[in-house]
Design a protein that fits this description.
This protein is an alpha/beta fold. It folds into two domains: 267 residues, Zn peptidases (Aminopeptidase); 112 residues, Alpha-Beta Plaits. It contains eleven helices and 16 strands.
């Protein structure tokens, strides 16, 4: 049986695993049932399974041959706080929680790869399978690294994939250098003296100040950062006031900054603070800023990207392997694992066209099951290139 035949032989079962995970989604650090299912599957394959590494994480190891090299493969367990609108027979049974990013597919794909590697490894060394909690927002990858993941399971490289709507189905995209952006968040409060809306001269106006800040903050990217250096500043929330006839005492402005150069984190914080203080002074208000540094950028080392691209060629051929494309301003906490390991790469598996509400984090997002065998084969090929089997003596 060829490798492709073996993948084809389990694809329907792996898709069934995905549908099961999809129907019972759980939020970050709450993935108890999902983790239990993953651990049970891994144990049934004969792997050594650990559920005491970090929160709800599951880690399994598989060793073949006598080699001392090691590689980690990572997938995510968590879902998002979204009500599912897609009409599916396996739609979420949990109100307000949905696998709207494809983590159910990534976990199922990695389970499929683990099964085939356990049955007929074809590699020499150790594979560490990492099923990570809480990729969305709360940084489960950062916690796993802090909890000693790589001290307990030392690896030479770490790899991950993500389904990517908008990349043609059946293609694999991986590039050296930035693939995903860093993300910082900010919360800014303007405070002053409230007053009746009919007598604005008796108070201050934090709403007017917030409006001035939103306009002025756009100069951070357009006028203080090199135009050849990608960066985004977006204001995403403004909260203030409860009554139509009263100017509030406080307005809160929230937003996010994205960039590939981590050094821009300090720059954006300083510029936002400077603009906020200036606006507050003009309006006779006070301003307080909470600036939170989030995920670092996903920067693929050249060597890891080359191996991932070679595995992609093995999987889908050279015509469907993409190595030159624009990176995303989205973020991904795989950056913590990649940074800690120092080698490896992060790849996108093309999921095809994107419709309204059908993109990542959309309430009608549907994972494209056609990419399941592509993802399994890619993981298998990554392992075989990173941990090639030793030739047998004649």
């Amino acid at each position: 049986m060829t490798a492709n035949d073996r993948v084809a032989g389990i694809t329907d079962e792996v898709i069934g695993w995905r549908h099961r995970i999809h129907a019972d989604p759980e939020l970050g650090f709450q993935e108890h049932r999902t983790a239990a299912f993953v651990a049970e599957r891994l144990q049934s394959f004969g792997l050594t399974v650990h559920t005491d590494v970090s929160a709800t994480a599951v880690v399994a190891t598989l060793r073949r041959g006598t080699g001392g090299r090691s590689i980690a493969l990572r997938a995510e367990l968590d879902a998002l706080p979204i009500d599912e609108a897609a009409d599916l027979p396996y739609a979420s049974r949990n109100p307000g929680v949905m696998h709207a990013c494809g983590h159910d597919g990534h976990s199922a794909i990695l389970l499929g790869a683990a099964r085939l590697l356990a049955e007929d490894g074809g590699f020499d060394g150790t594979v560490v399978f990492v099923f990570q909690p809480a990729e969305e927002v709360v940084g489960g990858g950062r916690r796993m690294v802090a909890d000693g993941l790589f001290e307990r399971f030392p690896v030479d490289q770490v790899y991950a994939l993500h389904n990517w709507p908008g990349v043609p189905e059946g293609h694999i995209a991986v590039r050296p250098g930035p693939q995903m952006a860093a993300v910082d968040d900010f919360e800014l409060a303007f405070r002053g003296k409230g007053c009746h809306a009919a007598m604005p001269h008796l108070g201050d106006d934090p709403i007017l100040a917030a409006a001035d800040f939103v306009a002025a903050a756009q100069r951070v990217v357009s006028r203080s950062i090199d135009p050849l250096q990608p960066a985004v500043l977006s204001v995403t929330q403004i909260h203030g006031g409860r009554f139509n006839n009263f100017v509030p005492t406080e307005v809160v402005v929230e937003g996010t900054c994205r960039f590939y150069d981590r050094g821009l984190s300090d720059h954006c914080e300083a510029e936002i603070r400077r603009i906020a203080d200036g606006v507050a002074a003009v309006h006779g208000l006070t301003a307080s800023l909470a600036y939170r540094r989030g995920y670092p950028p996903v920067i693929n080392p050249a060597e890891g990207a080359a191996l991932a691209a070679a595995a992609a060629v093995d999987t889908v051929g050279p015509d469907r392997t993409i190595t030159e494309f624009a990176p995303s301003m989205g973020c991904e906490d795989f950056a913590f694992m990649l940074g800690a390991a120092g080698r490896g790469a992060y790849a996108w598996i093309g999921a095809g066209p994107v419709g309204p509400g059908e993109g990542l984090h959309g309430d009608r997002f549907v994972f494209n099951d056609a990419v399941v065998p592509v993802g399994i084969r890619w993981f298998l090929n990554v392992v075989r290139r990173a941990l090639p089997a030793q030739p047998t003596s004649p």
